[in-house]
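User: I'm curious whether this sequence folds into something compact or stays loose and floppy. Could you predict its structure so I can see for myself?
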Amino acid sequence: MSIIVSEIFLIVGGLIGGFLLWQLLKGMKAKNWPTAPGKVVDSQITRDVSRDSDGDRSVTYGADIRYTYEVDGYEYSGDRRSFADYSSSNRRRAEKIVARFSPGADVAVYYSPDDPEKCVLEPGISVVSVLFLLLPLIFVVIGVLGLLGVFG
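Assistant: Here's the prediction. I'll summarize afterward.
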C-alpha cells in the first residue's frame, strides 16, 4: 500500500470519525440540558431515492419531526430528534419513529441553556451510533498500518 493511499485512509477515517465523535459528545452533553414542554406539529416519513454508478436504485427512509416549545416566554421550534439520527432502507423503522412522535403529541424538549434555539428530543447516544464509529476507526487503523509498512 502506498504512502499516499495510507494517508488518504488516515485522513478520511479521522475526519469522519471526528465528526461522528463530535455528534456523540453533543448528544451526551444534551442529556444534562434543561427540558421544556413541547408539542409535535408535524411528523412524516421522508423518502430519498438515489442511483449508484451502475444505475441500481436505492431508497432510504427517515423521519421528519417538527415541534414547538417555550422557554422563558419565547416560543421556539425544532426538528432535531437526536444527534445521531440516520436514514436507512428500513421503512418500518421510520414508521415507528413517526408513530411515536405523531402530530399533537406532547414531548419533552431538551434545549441548550446557552442557546435555547438548540434543541433535541432524544439526547444521548444509541448503540447504533457507537457502532457507526467502527467504520472510520477501521480506516484509521488501515492508514496507520499502511504508513508503518505492514502491507509491504
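Summary: The helical segments are 3-30, 91-100, 127-132, 134-147. The mean pLDDT is 90.
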